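Appendix B: complex inputs.
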Amino acid sequence: GIPIRTTLDNSTTVQYAGLLHQLTMRARSTVRDIDPQNDLTFLRIRSKKHEIMVAPDNEYLLIVIQNPCE
Amino acid sequence: IGHPEIFPLVFTTQTQEIFKCRVDEDVTKENCFKLIKKEDIIEDLKARAAVSDFHPVKKIVQEYPGEELLIVFDVEQQYGQNFYLVATEEAKENLLKPPEVAEEEEEEEEKEKEADENKEGTLEEFVYKPPVRKPWVSLGSEKEVEEESVKDTASKTKYLISRVRRKFGAPVTFTDKNASSVKDTYIECTSYQDKTFSIKLLEKDVGAQIVPKVRENSTQTKWTYPKNAAIQYFPREFSDEEKKESLSSKKLKEFITSVLLRMEIALQQNEIMNVFVDDWRALAEDESSYGSKSDIYLKEYQSFTDLHYLKDRTISCVCWHPNIYGIIAESATERLSYDERVDLSGKLLLQKSVILFWSFSDPLHPQLMLECPEDIYCFQFSPSDPNIIAGGCFNGQVVLWDISQYEEKLRNAKSSAGVKKTDVNLPSFIQAQQCGTEPPLVRYCAVSSIEYSHRTIITDIHWLPDFFEVNRMGATFENRAEICVQLVTCSPDCSILFWDIRGTKLPVQPLSDKNKEEKIIDVLPDFPDTFKHLDLTWKPLIKINLCKSDTSVDYSPIRISLTEEYYHYKTSDKMQSQNKLVELNKESPYAEISVPSGKILKGLENVSTNFFVGTEDGEIIYSDWKMERDSKKPSQKHAVHDGIVHTVQRSPFFKDIVLSVGPWNFAIWKEGLATGPILQSCCSAVRYTVGQWSLTRPGVFFIGREDGNIDIWDLLEKTHEPSQFQSISISMITCIRPWIASAKQQFLAVSDDSGVLHVLEISWTLSHPSSNEHANVLHYFEREVEYQKYYEQRQEFRAKERIE
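Resulting structure:
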C-alpha cells in the first residue's frame, strides 16, 4: 500500500503499509474462503510491545499502532 | 536292367563257329549284328541241351514270333557279356534300323561340314513331320500313379438323424457333454513311456563363457554455486500533490466515516482494559507470594570492621556509593553520652573522626578515609555527583568533601586489592601515605561557618533534588544546572537550614589562582579546593524555625523528609548521573556557578514545599517551608511516639506515604491526611532504633532493634506483627540501608553499635515484588484512609448523638 497520510516517520510508515497490506489481503481471503458471504471488517494484532489495529476497505487501509496503557 | 528284351549271352568259341559269328571275323565292331534263324537255335538247343549257350534263353527263343533273332556283339560288354540277344522283333528292328539312321545322320553331318566349309552348301531340307499318334505303351508308370492316388479304403458310414415331426421348426437346444465324463465314449491311445525309445544322455559337452556385463553410462550434474545477488528497491510513494488530491477525494471521506466507528470501538476497548495483561503470568505470581517462609531471610554477605579506627566506636550512618558497585561508606562516632563527651573532650580532640569507605573486594582494609573535623552523625552522597559528600557534624557544622581524585581508585578497588595505584598530581607525602597499607585520608573541602550553622548536632542532612532549587524566600525555581546544589539540614536546635553549595554573590577571589595552587606544592591544600569559596564562610540560605504555636518551646527536629526527594532505587538513573559527572569533571563549577537571580529562573509551581519532621519528643510535624509574611506555623502535628523519632522516611513507591519510627512503635502517614497516621503499630517489647523502607517491594520495610535483631514487616501479610525477624548482631542496630546492586542482587547494610558493618543479601522473595503488589499496597492504604474518614464520620455522628 502507498501511504497517504501518516504521523510516523517515513521509513516506518512505508514498512507498515506494505506489510500490513499483504497481511490484510491474506486475512480477508482466509475469511472469504471459509464463508464467501463473509468479509473482513477489522484486524487486531496484539504483540508484546504494541497493538496494531487495521480497518480495511476496498481501496484504503487505516492502521493504528497503540502502546499499552500503563 | 531297363531293357527287359536284352539278354546277355556268352558265346563260346564253338558256338561262334557253329553260327558263324566268330568274333572279329564275322562279327565286328561295326557289324555287330547277326541274324540267326530261329530254327538253327532250336536245333542247337536239342543238340547240345544244357551245354548250349542258348540254354538260358531257351524259352524266349521258342516264344519268339519272328524267324530271325538278332544277336548283337557287345564289344564293350554293355550288358555284361560279349553277346546279347534281343528278345523282341521291335527291339531288333530298332537296333538294326537306328544304326542306319545314325549312319544317315553321320552322312548328313559330314555333308553339313562340307557345306559349312563351303558356306554355300545348301542344307538338306529338314522335312517337318507332324507328330504321329502312337498307341500308348505302358511303361509301368500307371502302377505308381495308382499307388499314389488317394482312395477311400472303406466306405463311409452315413448317419441320418431325424427328429420327431412335432418338433420340427422348434428351437433347438444343444448341450455340451464332456467326453471324458462318460465311460467308453471314446477310445484313446494313452501315451506311455516306451523304454525302447528313451535314450539316456550320459555325457554332454557344453561350452560356457563368462562375460562381465559392462555398460557405460554417463550423467551430468548441475553444479550450482552460490552467487551473491543484491536487489535494491525503493517503495512507491505518492508525490505531495497526489497525496493532497487523494486526501480530499470523496472516496476517502466515505471510507473514513465508515471505518471510524470500528476503530473507535477498538480504541475504547483498549482504554477500558489493559489488553497486554498476561493472565498466565499473573496467575503464577500470586501463588508464589504465599511461598514458604524459609526463603525469606537475609543472607550474610560480608561484614566490615576495622580494629584501628573503629575501636570503641559506633557507626552512626551508612551510605552506599550511588554509582560504584560494592562501595559503602560509614561514619564512625564515639559511643559516648553527652556527659562523657564533656569529660573526655580534651582527649577526643586528638582522635580523628573518620568516614570509612569499604569495598566488597577487601573486607579488612578500608579503601578511603574522609577526615572530619568532628564526629559525623549523618552524611549523604550528592545524587548528581557522587564525589561530593556532605555531612553534618556533632557541633552543628556542615562539612563537604570532594573525592574526585579517588574516584578512579574506588572504581578499581576490585582489581587492585593490594596494589595501590598512584594518582596524578598528588603531593608526595600523600603518596607516601598511600604506599602504606593505610587508606588515603581525604580532608574535607569546606565547613560551614560556625556562627551560622546549627547550634547542636546535625541529625539529618538531605540533598535537594536536581530539578529545582530554592531561593531565599523559599520559593522553588527550576534548577538550570541540573545538578544537586542545595542541602537541607535539621538539628535539635529547633531549626531547619537550607544550604547552597554554589558561590554567593559576594566577591570571591578569582579561581584561576586557586587552580594553580592546586598543582604547586605550597602551604599545601592537600585537598581539592572545590569548595574553597565556601570554607568557613558558608552560610545557610534559609533558616526555618519550628516553633510551637502556644508555647515558646520550639520543636526539635531530628529527622526531616521532604516531599521531593531523590531516590537511588532506579538503576537506570546511573547513566544520567554519569553524564553529569563527565561535565563536572572538567571544571569546578560550584564556585563559578553563581546563584541566579530570581527573575531569570522559571518558577516551578508544582513542586511541593511541604515536609515532614520527626522531633525529639516524639511528634510528627507536617509543615511548609515557603516563607510567608506571617510567622510560620506548622500546619499539622501529631504526637504519636513516646520518644525520640529517629526515622522519618518517605516510601520509595508512594510519594505521600511516610514511615516514622519511634522507640516503641512506628506509624505510617499519608500526606494530606490530617487526622492521623494510617497505620500505627502496637508497642513492641524491644526498642526500635531504625526503620527503612524496602527499595523494591512497596509493602515491606525493615526495622532495627536494640537487641540486634531486624524485623521485616510486610504490610500485605501481617500488620500486627513483623512477618519475619532475624538476628544480625548482638549489639544495637544503628543504621539500615538497603541498596539495589543489580537486578538480582540486593543488599542491606546494617551497622551496629559495636562498629561492625554487616552487609546482607536480601533474598529473592524479599526483594522481588509480586505482580500486583504495588496495586495491592496502594489499595491497602486507600482502604485505611477510607477507614479513617469513616471513623471521623462516626465520631461526628456519635458526638451529635450525645448532644441530642
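Chain B touches chain A through 22 residues (CB under 8 Å).
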